[in-house]
């Protein structure tokens, strides 16, 4: 039967044959799409004109333009085909609660963030099931709770003062580079521990650099591709693991307990899984690396933007933050403590506003494990099908003009009464994410950035040498393009 049909086809003139094939292919495509839509119910609008690869190309230029054009065309919920996948966006405080409030059984992180496994290591975070992960995050939450954070402030201060003591009376620096170096120093003291800071900082910082350099846009799709960067990453991961395992062994042998996150992870025990055993060395190293990754670029980028916005224009906000420092010095003396940092509302709001305008994590993602319904602010209901990557975006949500007045301008006072624009609706402000997986290090980050900027405000004035920068969309975590500033030493 098949043979006969093929013979008949072969007898047809070529143009007729090609035409016939095209008609059949077109009909098949229409049928597949129509039945797919039926199968999916009323799924969100898809950018039909964009072929698979087209979405990817637009995306590779930075997701901002793609989100802007799709949002103006379709509203808060839409789907973009990305290579062989579909990414459905839920943008703004009306649609994004579906993202932030969903249980892990409905919207999972594992599928979309598992590219981190070669970096963080096996047996932790995205390499384990949800029950184990939530226990491991409990260890992290304990290590970062307020009573512990208080003890980290003197270390932040010491590192910042020593670092800036090496600056001259005046000079020109790239702030992003400065904070990149300083944040790994503070992290080494408070997260990795005294041993690393005192005797092997340079080696660990170099290894961390190689590990970080091995995480590139290509690694998201192909984390195990045998590239030179990935090989260096794997070697750095193994070397870091050896270093930390020997530190852990020495601490266990000596019985000495330190005040740092490493110690908190060593002392952690599972409650609901693994028969209540303690963390293994491999898990401790993996969690520590995951924390370094979560906090390093995000904090250094936010420190940089905070400074750049404060010193831009007529320096209105730099002067206001200086005034605030004068006030706390008059009240409490020159010490920088946990309680003093908690009084710095102006500086706090400047950091918050820098993070609103320039959140380093532009897209947050999950994987839809089951279909779910979402209703837009104008009453349209869609069913997002199982298997979609679901994304929301701090950068996009933070610029919505109906949520934030004059959304493109730097106005730290928007967070204070009577405006309090971030509180008008849940999930309006998502620089630290929110809901079930909100950032566990937000308080740590605020304390660290406030300490560093307090030291700077008390000792230097700044001016921009270059134009105010654009974001650099080529990186994984988005920061400003290199920008030079001039510092001048003075005492407040
Ligand atoms: C300005 C600095 C920071 C920013 C902007 C930031 C931002 C974020 C965001 C947006 C998320 C949510 C990710 C998602 O929903 O997929 C997140 C999660 C997380 N962050 Fe941060 N972060 C910062 C600093 C830190 C620091 C310093 C630490 C630790 C020392 C940290 C630890 C974590 C952890 C453990 C999670 C995962 C929480 C979970 O999945 O349940 N972050 N962060």
From TrEMBL:
Binding site for heme: 439
Cofactor: heme
Gene3D superfamilies in UniProt: Cytochrome P450
Segments crossing the lipid bilayer: 12-32
Superkingdom, natural source: Eukaryota
One Pfam family per UniProt: p450
GO MF, one example: oxidoreductase activity, acting on paired donors, with incorporation or reduction of molecular oxygen
Biological process annotations from GO: methylation
InterPro entries the UniProt entry points to: CYP450_sterol_14alpha_dmase, Cyt_P450, Cyt_P450_CS, Cyt_P450_E_grp-IV, Cyt_P450_sf
Keywords: Heme, Iron, Membrane, Metal-binding, Methyltransferase, Monooxygenase, Oxidoreductase, Transferase, Transmembrane, Transmembrane helix
Family: Belongs to the cytochrome P450 family.
Protein name: Obtusifoliol 14-alpha demethylase
């Amino acid at each position: 039967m098949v043979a006969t049909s093929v013979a008949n086809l072969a007898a047809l003139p070529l143009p007729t044959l090609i035409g016939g094939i095209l008609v059949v292919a077109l009909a098949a495509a229409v049928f597949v799409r129509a039945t797919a839509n039926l199968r999916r119910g009323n799924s969100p609008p898809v950018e039909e004109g964009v072929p698979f690869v087209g979405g990817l190309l637009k995306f590779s230029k930075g997701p901002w333009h793609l989100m802007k054009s799709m949002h103006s065309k379709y509203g808060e919920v839409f789907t973009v085909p990305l290579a062989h996948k579909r990414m459905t966006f839920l943008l703004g405080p009306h649609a994004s609660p579906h993202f932030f409030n969903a249980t892990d059984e409905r919207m999972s992180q594992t599928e979309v963030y598992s590219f981190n496994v070669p970096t963080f290591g096996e047996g932790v975070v995205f390499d384990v099931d949800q029950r184990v992960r939530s226990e491991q995050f409990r260890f992290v939450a304990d290590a970062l709770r307020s009573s512990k954070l208080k003890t980290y402030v003197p270390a932040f201060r010491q590192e910042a003062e020593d670092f800036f003591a090496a600056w001259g009376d005046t000079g020109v620096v790239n702030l992003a580079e400065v904070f990149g170096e300083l944040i790994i120093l503070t992290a080494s003291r408070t997260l990795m521990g005294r041993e690393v800071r005192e005797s092997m900082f340079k080696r660990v910082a170099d290894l961390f650099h190689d590990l970080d350099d091995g995480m590139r846009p290509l690694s998201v799709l192909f984390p195990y591709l045998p590239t030179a960067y990935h090989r260096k990453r794997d070697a750095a991961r193994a070397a870091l693991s050896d270093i930390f395992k020997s530190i852990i062994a020495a601490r266990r042998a000596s019985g000495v307990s330190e005040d740092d996150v490493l110690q908190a992870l060593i002392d952690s025990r599972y409650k609901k899984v693994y028969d209540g055993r303690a963390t293994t060395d491999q898990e401790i190293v993996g969690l520590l690396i995951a924390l370094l990754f979560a906090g390093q670029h995000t904090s250094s980028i936010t420190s940089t933007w905070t400074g750049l916005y404060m010193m831009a224009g007529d320096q209105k906000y730099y002067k206001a933050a200086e005034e605030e420092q004068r006030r706390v010095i008059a009240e409490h003396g020159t010490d920088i403590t946990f309680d003093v940092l908690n009084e710095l509302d102006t500086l706090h709001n400047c950091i918050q506003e820098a993070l609103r305008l320039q959140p380093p994590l532009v897209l947050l993602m999950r994987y839809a494990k089951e279909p779910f319904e979402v209703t837009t602010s104008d009453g349209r209901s869609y069913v997002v099908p199982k298997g979609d990557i679901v994304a929301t975006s701090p950068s996009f949500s933070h610029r919505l003009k109906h949520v934030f007045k004059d959304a493109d301008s730097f106005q730290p006072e928007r967070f204070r009464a009577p405006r309090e624009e971030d509180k008008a609706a849940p999930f309006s402000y998502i620089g630290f994410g929110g809901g079930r997986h909100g950032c566990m290090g937000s308080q740590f980050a605020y304390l660290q950035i406030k300490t560093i900027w307090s030291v700077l405000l008390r000792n230097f004035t700044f001016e921009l040498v270059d134009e105010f920068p654009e974001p650099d969309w080529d990186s994984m975590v988005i920061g400003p393009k290199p920008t030079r500033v001039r510092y001048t030493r003075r005492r407040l």
